[in-house]
Amino acid sequence: MAERIPFPQQVSTAPEVVERFGDLHPPFDRQAAVPEANRCLYCFDAPCTIACPTHIDVPRFIKKIASGNLAGSARTILDANILGASCSRACPVEVLCEGACVMHRYNKQPIQIARLQRFAMDALHASGAPLPFEPGVETGRSVALIGAGPASLACAAELRRRGVRAYLYDARPLPGGLNTYGIAEYKLPLVESLREIEMLSQLGVDFHFEETIDASRLAELEREHDAIFLGIGLGAIHQLGIAGEHLVGVTNALELIAGYKSSSMTKVPERVVVVGAGNTAIDAAIAAVRLGAAEVSIVYRRGLEQMSAFGFEYEHAKSEGVKFLWHVQPVGVRGSGAVEGLTLTKLVASEDGSIVPLDGSEFLLEADLVVLSIGQATHTEFLAKYADGTAKVQLERGRILIDRATGQTSHPKFFAGGDCTNGGREVVDAVADGKRAGIGIAAWLEGHHGQA
What we know:
452 residues, alpha/beta, FAD/NAD(P)-binding domain, 16 helices
């Protein structure tokens, strides 16, 4: 029996946390949305649409806003991106659609595409209207999707629109993957992630929560279903491998974000140090500020030019009061039972160009909480099948190799998408992967089995 998704009002972030994590970009009202929509040039060869990984017809949905057809605007968005609401909040539009806007050529502000997209999607949700699609004619085929993050959700939507049953399995109690557990509340609130998935469930997707899939269970699912989609994301955040890492007060960025979004965490200690300089590290550092830390520092072994976080994320962190220490490396966590500080050493370039510790440069950065954000491991070990240790599908450094056009792996019955294939990109990239895979699976099933 399909497991019902909890309604957003049943599972929510603590009210005091919600209050501290106001919208990064406040929503448009109608008086602001319509004039902004009318600024659009409705380009025929729209570079914004090309820049979107899911290729939303941006001029079309914006023109519908300008004409007052909000339902049609939302349908245009959802037709290309079933998670259009979350992507309107979480996408790095500065380097995608808005970054490609032709207004840049005229030294004008780009069209605020994300806020217009959110306006259309919020209007659909507020209207109480159902998802503007229905399941396709049942084919009698079924697919098991491992993981209930953005890639699997998008894949499931495409399958259901083509009459293929979709069964999603996730180890956590709520669906959504990083949308629910790993994106900062000021970008994508927990309640919005769940509301969007509640609407998606209208297509008849079957959800199974708190079920970890190991090699044995995967073999069962392979026998029970016509195809398998692997949307398993990435594994645990890497450890530093230094003394004191076991102390109370050492955590990681994803645990911190999940803690305040979906559990009872409402505050952090006074002094917080985040190790790493990616977008997730930035989110964790800003979260620490908003959760009451008086001093928040990001430490990174390289410089500003080498950090993987987007420039606008860096500027946002600075505006929130986050401090940055460049060219330093942790060598130990100091403390007796609990964290008291992080021992760092300065790094310099050697004659051969490598980065090495500077002798005698060690110093202590006092801290009550150390948050690791130095990349995630893969967790594809359960895909191993054969006696010689080779995996069920072809891997490269732990990542699943796929045909990018269809999502198909080296095993014809297995498809994959999202972070487990690309190493961790954006939500919209995972949605695009899942969308392609859903279409690819349906086509493969029809070609392999014929119509049911």
